[in-house]
Design brief:
16% strand; 13 strands; single chain; 6-stranded parallel beta sheet; elongated
Length: 366
Amino acid sequence: MKHLVYILPYLNLGGTERQALSLIKEYQHRYRVTLLAPTGKGLPPFLEQQLDYCEFTAWERNFFKGLRELIAGIKAAQKRQSIDLIHIHGAHELMIPVRLLFPNLPIVFTVHGYHGASADVSYRLACLFANLWATRVISVCQTEYDILVKFGMNSGKLEMIYNGVPTPTLDRSKVISLANQFNLDPTTQTIIGTAARLAEAKGLTYLLQAFARVAKDKLNLRLVIAGVGDLEQQLKQQAQDLGIADRTIFAGYINDLPELMSLFNFFVLPSLQEACSLACAEAMSQQKAAIGTTIGGIVEQIADGKTGFLIPSKDVDTLADRMQYLLDRPELVEEFARNGKQRYEELFTLDRMLIKTEDLYARVLN
């Protein structure tokens, strides 16, 4: 049995962790798996798997302590069983201690996208480090692939594998429980939903503004926002100021997201920054029409005019217009939904991601 080591720079509740967890859940039955990562809110589902876990201090908190602990963790994993492959997610700098310890060990590095003012610097460093030390690099969408090539990534090392999500099997009792918890009734209400971190990069302030425009005099309209984050109080205050607090549900972090999404009439992703959205893929898997911004991999997920609409980011007027357009045309929502499910099955299933990733592992290990 081969020994795979996964290294993550954090364990929060985001897409990076969910994608790594999907890989571990599948591969733990065929490989020995070790996880090295700082502790965080996203740790519990990893601990439920059959793996060895070693914590190290997050480098942004204490670089030298974190580096020492990571090196010790890699050495301990090697002592338990010789490591065959290390898969690093998100943080290119984590390749440094691996290469210090093992000059020839295969490294797979997944780029989950860099955001913010320093994004270009991060892309350049990722390309530099990966060209020097990675055996293979995974891009989670074609947009990210093109960015990496633009910043100098060796395309011979680069592979594009879309993030994938499982085909949902809904628990009807959980659906009913969530509907009751949030006073949602799809038979009498129209429910617009999203799932995202409550952070500036997700553009939720623009969604609230657009919803306020379409919600005027529509007492049966609801907006559901699933997620947690630093902007929670600010966004709740904004909903209050806009006069839509009575029709806006901040659902928090939801373990049973597919069951909640099943209540949505359609899905909106107003992101300002995004690589390949797991939430969007999940909405498509649930046969939901979607509105999303022309950002990152969203343009590859939503087929404009076929599975939903693409709009410019921060464009409240267009977002409100497209939301109203779908509200007025339930038959179009159903058509987009069917097309979206088909697109999901072609490109964004979990099985597709797992097969392509394991094929990459096999080529690296042979």
